From TrEMBL:
This is PSA2 protein. InterPro entries: Ntn_hydrolases_N, Proteasome_alpha, Proteasome_alpha-type, Proteasome_asu_N, Proteasome_sua/b. Gene3D superfamilies: Glutamine Phosphoribosylpyrophosphate, subunit 1, domain 1. It comes from the Eukaryota. Keywords: Proteasome. GO terms for biological process: ubiquitin-dependent protein catabolic process. SUPFAM superfamilies: N-terminal nucleophile aminohydrolases (Ntn hydrolases). GO terms for cellular component: cytoplasm; proteasome core complex, alpha-subunit complex. SMART domains: Proteasome_A_N.
Length: 128
């Protein structure tokens, strides 16, 4: 397959699949308050064989940054791992926590790199 494959109607097929996966995901919300932020999401139970405790839809990245998503869990776990690694690398260089805006920009760059280098686009929408 090719990420840049267009359908007869002129749409990028893999992007359409990614958007469909996001639309099928559980809703997530972030609320900013004066003294903090609340991240929340719905857990959809996919099967009775599914261990609900093994799925974490809200993950800490640093002490002050969390991540929540809608879409595909495996894609989310890849981005959580990359976000934590980027935050650790920043801390090792500058000896202070990474600014949220900078982490958002770096994660967006990772997602763009995956899409442009021939991988399937990430099938998630995330709140950081």
């Amino acid at each position: 397959f090719c990420v840049s494959l267009f359908s007869p109607s002129g749409k990028l097929v893999q992007i359409e699949y990614a958007l469909a996966a996001v639309a099928a995901g559980a809703p997530s919300v972030g609320i900013k308050a004066a003294n903090g932020v609340v991240l929340a999401t719905e857990k959809k139970q996919k099967s009775i064989l599914y261990d609900e405790r093994s799925v974490h839809k809200v993950e800490p990245i640093t002490k002050h940054i969390g991540l929540v998503y809608s879409g595909m869990g495996p894609d989310y776990r890849v981005l959580v791992h990359r976000a934590r690694k980027l935050a650790q690398q920043y801390y090792l260089v500058y000896h202070e926590p990474i600014p949220t805006a900078q982490l958002v920009q770096r994660i967006a760059s990772v997602m763009q790199e995956y899409t442009q280098s021939g991988y399937v686009p990430f099938r998630i929408v995330r709140l950081l």
